[in-house]
Write a structure and sequence with these properties.
Number of helices: 7
Largest sheet: none
Structural class: mainly alpha
Distance between the termini: 48 Å
Oligomer: single chain
Number of strands: 0
């Protein structure tokens, strides 16, 4: 198996940052609620029920405009997942800087992942029962 070089990692990082910037520009400039060319949720179209990701595009648009209340209304799961996503990103950085660190053993532990999965399922069911 070939070892991934620093240049390859740097190229992936730069490509990821460029994609993030381009996506942020698109979601900042165009509102997914009013533009028909944003993809629609296939689960919602087929079943009439909201999936855990429904409203994420509108929530991202609201976040980029610092409308935290609107973002939470559109998708509370996305907003409440931000701390965990930031921890995963911090874990990636810590493992790169200090490979011997055991920080990842805590936040990527199977129990933590199952707890998050249960949280997603509870959100999915309750948003369809209570209509949020």
């Amino acid at each position: 198996m070939a070892k991934i070089t620093f240049r390859t990692k740097l190229a992936y990082f730069i490509a990821g940052v460029l994609v993030l910037i381009a996506g942020s520009f698109i979601y900042f400039s165009y509102n997914p609620a009013t533009n028909v060319w944003f993809p629609k949720c296939p689960f919602l179209l087929v079943t009439g029920l909201k999936c855990p990701g429904c409203g994420s595009q509108r929530a991202i648009h609201d976040l980029l405009h610092f409308d935290f209340h609107g973002a939470f209304i559109n998708n509370a799961l996305l907003i409440s997942s931000i701390p965990y996503i930031l921890l995963l990103f911090a874990d990636y950085i810590v493992r790169y800087v200090r490979p011997q660190s055991s920080f990842h053993l805590l936040i990527q532990h199977p129990v933590a992942i199952w707890i998050y999965f249960a949280f997603v399922l509870v959100f999915w069911v309750t948003r369809n029962i209570f209509g949020f």
